[in-house]
Amino acid sequence: IAPSLFAIPWFLTVFSSQARFSTSIRILDHVFLFGIEAIFKVILYTLESSEKEILALRSLTDISDYMKTSLPEKINLTFEYHVPEIFANSRDLKGALRELEIE
Fold this sequence. Notes:
The chain is mainly α. It is built from 7 helices and no strands.
């Protein structure tokens, strides 16, 4: 499934179009602290924690619906309870993001 189907609204609105206002503000705080990498970390952590549910879905329609409806609520819960885990992740996204900029 193409990320553009679910992730573009997250990037364009810093989650405010789909997450609770309080969650969006907290994510924006982290963007100011850590840079754009914060958005990627939230998305990757949420997708990784939803991996089993996503893989259990049978059709592209089910996956798309899950990404547009259930996943935003999971972002709220993820960010509410797992902030230290999201940002303690040792994954270096800056190098990967720089490579994508070049492309």
